[in-house]
Design goal:
The complex is a heterodimer. Chain A contains eight helices and no strands. By secondary structure, chain A is mainly α. Chain A has one domain: Up-down Bundle (Four Helix Bundle (Hemerythrin (Met), subunit A)). By secondary structure, chain B is mainly alpha-helical. Chain B has one helix and no strands. The chains are: A mainly alpha, B mainly alpha. The interface between A and B is large, with 43 and 29 residues.
Chain lengths: ~270, ~45
Amino acid sequence: MVRRVDARPTIAPPRTLSRAGRGLHRFANPGRFLRLSGALLPWIAAPGLALTAAGLVWGLFFAPADWQQGDAVRIMYVHVPAAWLASAGYLALAGCSAASLVWRHPLADLAAAEISPVGAGFTAMCLITGSLWGKPMWGAWWVWDARLTSVLVLFFLYLGHIALVRAFDEPERGYRAGAILALVGVVNLPIIKFSVDWWNTLHQPDSITLFGAPTMSLVMLWPLLLSALGYTLVFAALVLARTRAAVMERRIRALLTARARHLEILG
Amino acid sequence: MTHLPFIAAAYAVAVLLPAGYAVAALHRLRLARRRLAALDPRGAP
């Protein structure tokens, strides 16, 4: 008699979880995550693309040139969102790593593993566009400035996470090692943020702060905010799409393993 | 427009890099959906 094996991973939240942990575990069910993320993805991706396109066209063709930098200031509309997402992406990676270590959330592992390649890409974009901005303004592609160096360290942290997660035969060990690295690396985020205040850097100080008034003209600020919001949604859509694929791939592995075991029992 | 090659290169990177990620993600999603549908038609999203 052939017994049907249900290979779908079933995840029950441990009884000892706090309220926050139980809340997070509501979304641990892969089927529920796939349904929710499938419905959400177009609503994130489409506005993300539209806002990014609008911000870039505005910044490239309609925003005014800077009186000192000339048209090179237009690189700001791609460099600043990339820099913001390099740090914000790492914060999200650390959040997922904490959720994985503290609450053992099974989707947090997958999300962390999918955030790091996207974050590394946006950090590379920040470094490349910064270099393309630095050459005409500073006369150098690269300087060992505190801001630039700390962002380069962030890029290496992302690469380290990507390598570590995939370095073990047993995925759980890789996720755990990656989560520890991600949490240790959080110390670099305030260094990036305050490097321009703590050290005498060639890189300019922040033009936009959380509580202070922006030091740039509104005609430059609007396309920058549009571009930053658009890229943020694009980043989120990329991570969501990759996490969806990772959940499906995990289910495929579980089904194949169950089939192999089943055949072993029969044979 | 001053510094045009630098601006064009920066915008090219800013468009092509996320576009590359998007194409790769869509390809991976399509492949995973197809394989899952072949293994478990009821469970495929």
